[in-house]
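Bench log. Compound arrived from synthesis this morning; before running ITC I wanted a structural hypothesis for how MRU sits in the protein. Inputs:
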Amino acid sequence: MKIEGQHRRAIEEISGKRAVRIIDQTVLPHQLTWLTLKTLAEAAHAITVMQVRGAPLIGATAAYGYAFAMKEDPSDAGLESAYQTLFATRPTAVNLRWALDRVRAVLQGLEPHLRADAAWHEAGQIGEEDVKTNAAIGGHGQRVFREVFADKQGGGVLNVLTHCNAGWIACVDWGTAIAPIYQAHDGGMKVHVWVSETRPRGQGASLTAWELKQHGIPHTLIVDNEAGHLVQRGMVDLCIVGADRVAANGDVANKIGTYLKALVCKTHHVPFYVALPTSTIDWTIRNGIKDIPIEQRSAREVTHVTGLNAKGRREEVLICPEGTEARNDGFDVTPGRLVTELITEYGTFSTNATDMRRLRLAAGL
Ligand code: MRU
């Protein structure tokens, strides 16, 4: 997608080198810094500290991390320890495990001296497929948008609510929940996006708002607590979010705050969509609310905020009494019954058992 008018990807191979370039997402939107990753340790660190984040991008970065590890130690022991190092970086987004399993399955049948090349190739494939998958999600989502727009009394602008960041910077390109917005806008539809700031890490404020601005899409930043008010007043036509892990029963783990949005949409009959690649579905988990692991993050993310000060420097400030206890669950789980449809690369599916079976078949699993 576009940065200052130039087409870029969130993770790019550096030609002629076994290395990739990523954007350091911890300093956006105030600074655009590209970092080079070329070792297992650098890739694992980038995921852990959220220089890269978002389920599909975590998966792609982990795959490249695995490829770097195979340059360093392609033995059977190296294969296993690299898997464990990368697997331990973040717990909720299942694309991490999906990508690692996929690369490991290729490598296990190979002699160690062949593993570095094979892993690099597989990581590249994962990246390329991510782009195609998200473009397809965008196409299906755009059709959904057109249907909602056609039903809207008085036409005008389609008002879309989103939470967190599920745009191209959470993926390799296009994004999941934001892909339909890009495609609808590029196709001439008048779309306006309500961007929920997404405390505590501010992915909406710092990443989604930045992406939408780069693409020239009208948007308005809101505090997370405003969404209910807007939905109640008829100012939201649909809500669309991404996902970090979807269970076999259609329950959706996504950034903390998603569940409240789904509840208010249900109450006011506003459609609530979840856009995801099928690599985000964990078919081993039957009940998402009970069994999807939820990342517990540092209390400091709640007690402090970071932004630009009057001198234009990044600064972190305390927003509560010194020593206040804080709890920071990174994700929540929205029951499948609150989801109008899942929008995937294979089309749209409801979360009832029949449709989830259809979706599994479509994904060839
Ligand atoms: O903690 P993060 O920033 O890695 O969270 C992931 C997300 O960006 C969202 O939950 C997103 O909606 C799903 S990933 C496309």
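What the model suggests: The chain has two domains: 2-129, 139-362. The mean pLDDT is 97.
ITC booked for Thursday regardless.
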